[in-house]
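Aim 2 progress update. The chain analyzed this quarter is reproduced below.
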Amino acid sequence: MQRILVIGATSAIAEATLKLYAERGDALYLVARNTERLKALATDLSTRGAARVETTLLDVTDFDHHAPALDTAWKELGGIDVALIAHGSGAYDKGHLKSVPTLRAGIDTNATATIALMAAIGTRMAEQGRGTLAVITSVAGVRGRAANLLYGAAKAAVIAYASGLRQTLHRRGVQVVDIRPGWVDTPMTAHLKKGPLFAQPDTVARGIVRAIDRHRSVVHLPWIWSPLMLLIRWMPEPIWKRLRL
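Predicted structure tokens:
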């Protein structure tokens, strides 16, 4: 039995991942900001076989409450084997172009809060001498594009931090897994026309669990995004800037 902490537990990808862990009989600690959805999810996971399900409310941009929430998770489960950070918002919101508060809100949610939680969780795992910290970033962070430039910039910051944190913690027995999904059929992409590159949350969830089990450093989900991102990363800038992506 593993002890699993998931932050942003009510996101579509996180819910699908939690169902897999529940079916394994793991102990789960769920963190989210919507009371009713959190209660409903906890009930569902209990019926699926989770050894234990605990919950707490947290708005990830309420930085003063990060430490108390994590302390409670560690105390309730007696330590954490796997932590998954899965929150995020506003991938296609361009309101920041005319509003500094909107820009700051996007960075706080998708970068600053994530990095702060990674630092705090990484420190606790280093102290216990083991653990896996997984964070959902995005292929959007590999190279900036017009369609989601603020979201992509935020995810790029998290990708860079994950790389550095992996170097920092690997000698302390802590694994850092950077999970980079492509387009996923979730409420965040509800307004987009679905194409062959769209994946379902269940598919991505299976990839997340597999990557964590195997202690992967970086994983693109589904796998097709790995060669696509290699192409995008090395595409010459004169060509890249003319593309409508």
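The longest strand covers residues 174-181. The chain has a mean pLDDT of 92. These observations will guide the mutagenesis experiments scheduled for the next reporting period.
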